[in-house]
Structures are given as structure tokens and as C-alpha cells.
Amino acid sequence: MISPGIYQHYKGNNYEVIGVATHSEDETKLVVYRPLYGEGALWVRPLSMFTEEVKVNGRSVARFQFLGEKALEDSL
Predict the structure, then answer these.
(1) CATH code at 9?
(2) Distance (Å, rounded) from C-alpha 46 to C-alpha 25?
(3) DSSP-derived pairing of the beta strands 59-62 and 43-46
(4) Which of 8, 17, 39, 44 is the most buried (most CB within 10 A)?
(5) 36 within domain boundaries
(6) What global pTM score does this model have?
(7) Is 73 within a domain?
(8) Residue 24: inside a domain, yes or no?
(9) Tens-digit pLDDT string for the chain (76 aa)
């Protein structure tokens, strides 16, 4: 599982993970998060996709990197 807190997307933007929800029909785990820019609307992404690695310039990197538990947005 992943922890609530602040994560950085491999493209650079920061997001706050609220928690992990369970889909009511198939019990798929979904990460509930919001961007720390713009309107801050809630989004969901399958846990497996949120935690996967992606290729960037031929190198594997985490799609989202954990930065800390919270309060990062206060310093942005």
C-alpha cells in the first residue's frame, strides 16, 4: 500500500494523496489524489498504475515519488 502524503509525478508536478479507495463492483484499489496546482479537484488512478515504473530516456523511474507526509504545499 501507499501512504497519504505528498508525491511528485515523474514529470515534476506535486500531488497530495488522500488515501486508497476500493471500487464497489470489482474491488480494484484506486488512489485518491489531488494536484497541488490549479483548482485541486480530486482524481483517482488504479493503485497498480500509480505505483508502477515508467521509462524516461531509457531509464525506469517511479511514476510517483513519495516526498513526505504533508505540509509541502504550504511551502510552495
Answers:
(1) 2.30.30.320
(2) 14
(3) unpaired
(4) 17
(5) yes
(6) 0.85
(7) no
(8) yes
(9) 799 999 999 999 999 999 999 999 999 999 999 999 999 999 999 999 999 999 999 999 999 999 998 765 454 4
